[in-house]
Each structure stands twice: as structure tokens, then as C-alpha cells.
Amino acid sequence: MKTHGGDSPSSSPLNGNVRSGVATPRPSGPYVNLVKPILDRVIGLFLLTFFSPIIIIAGLVILIRLGRPVFYSQERIGLDGRSFRLHKLRTMVPDRRSGHRGYHGEERRLTHKSLNDPRVAPVGRVLRRMRLDELPQFWNVVKGDMSLVGPRPELPDIVRQYEPWQHQRHQVKPGVTGPWQVSHRNGKLMHECTELDLDYLEHIGLLHDLRILAETPLAMVGGRKGY
Q1: Model pTM score
Q2: What is the maximum alpha-carbon separation in the chain?
Q3: What is the pLDDT of residues 84-104, one digit of tens each?
Q4: How far apart are alpha carbons 37 and 148 in whole angstroms?
Q5: How far apart are CA 80 and CA 83, in angstroms?
Q6: Lower Cβ count inside 10 Å, N or C end of the chain?
Q7: Backbone CA torsion sign across 136, 40, 82, 24
């Protein structure tokens, strides 16, 4: 990953980039083009409905403890390098850009969540620990921005620093969960594990996705960092 500069998502070619001289073909076929999008929307809608009571209760707690807004959206990079708004339950204190709550740790440029970020409210730490702040992302799945399984969506500032071959991970929709989350390497930053995403692209299929979905709860209970 480059330290400075790099191609922007809009200008980077997403087909034919090379990893060690070998391009990862864009996934295609009946599963990727037809079955996976249908399953995403059907299962995503079911999960959104199933978890809606938890989202409502968590939202009320946020409203009482932190005030408005209850939800938080952030720009991320998705399929073909296009940006979209990823939705979460808010976990940070109000007006986090003022007062003495600022945080400028080095890892802010590299990761989405910091264990030491003082802007995260106590209730927010509980939500993050239980992964409840991520539940609104099932709405992203229903909308078609995301898939249930795929590479995790990155921040634009990080994507701008990608090496050309790393943009290949944008050949599929980003996922609520994916190979990084269930891997023993998920304690590392996402851009350090792009090979996991490219391996997923090469082996994408129904059984592979089901395996990742089945392993995700175990990864969450095990306290892994990839969320």
C-alpha cells in the first residue's frame, strides 16, 4: 500500500490489475450474477426484520444517552470503485469535532475503529463490543449497495492510497461479513490482507459464502477485531 498519492477509485481500472503479474478475473456465472443478488436481498430483508426490535431498542438507548442523530452514515467505496453511504448506529459523543474530545491517533488514517478513541461513548463501546452498531448495514444489503458476504468496504482516503492491484477487490460488492472477519489474520488492517479478498474472488460460490456466514458468529463471539 502506498504511503502517499495513488489512483482515485474513479480513475483506477478494476479489471486486469495484476498481483504478482497475474490478474484476478472478474467473478461471473449464474451464482454471482443471479443467485447471490437474490439471496442477498431476501436474506438481508429477513435479517433486517428479525433484528429490527434490537435496532429500535438500541436506537432508543442512543437517543436517551447521546441524543440525535441515532444513525450514522459514512462514505465507503463499493462495487467498481463507486462510493455509497454505509449505515450504522451512532456510537460517538455528540458534537465530537469540538471541545476536548478530538482524537488524532496515527491509526485514524488506517482503521475504522480504534480501541482508544475517547470520542466513543460508554454506550457506544457496548454496542461496538456486541457488534450491534453494524446491524443497520442489512439495509445497505437490501438497497443493493452491499452483499451479505464480500470484502469489507474501505474508506475513500485509504482506497486512494491503494496499489493498482488492490483495486481488484472492488470487482464484487462489499460484504457485511467476509474472509477477513473469519480469518486468523483479521487482527491486521484490511489493506494488509487484500490477498484474502482476491482469494475470495477466485473461489466465490454458494458453499464458500455459506461457510463464511456460518463462521461469522463464532468469530464475533471469539472477540476478533475484524468488524
Answers
A1: 0.80
A2: 54
A3: 999 999 999 876 454 444 444
A4: 9
A5: 9
A6: N
A7: positive
Burial of 213 (0-12, 13-18, 19+ CB in 10 A): middle
Residue bearing cell 486512494 = 160
Residue 140 has pLDDT above 50, yes or no: yes
Res. 149: pLDDT tops 70: yes
Q: Are strands 22-23 and 175-177 parallel, antiparallel or unpaired?
A: unpaired
Q: Which cell is 88 given?
A: 450504522
Q: Residue 38: what pLDDT?
A: 97
Q: How many residues does the chain have?
A: 227
More confident residue, 61 or 106: 61
Q: Which one-letter amino acid corresponds to residue 84?
A: F
- Grid cell in block for residue 201: 474472488
Q: Which of 169, 178, 125 is nearest to 15 (CA)?
A: 169
Pick the closest to residue 160 from 49, 90, 77 (CA basis). Answer: 77
| 1's grid cell | 500500500
Three-state SS for 185?
coil
Half-sphere exposure of 42 (CA within 13 A, CB side): 6
Q: What is the share, in percent, of the chain residues with pLDDT greater than 70?
A: 74
Helix or strand holding residue 85 (H, E) = strand 83-89
3-state secondary structure of 16: coil
pLDDT at residue 100, as a whole number: 43
Query: Strand, coil or helix: what is 100?
Result: coil
Task: Quote the cell numbers at residue 99.
Answer: 471541545
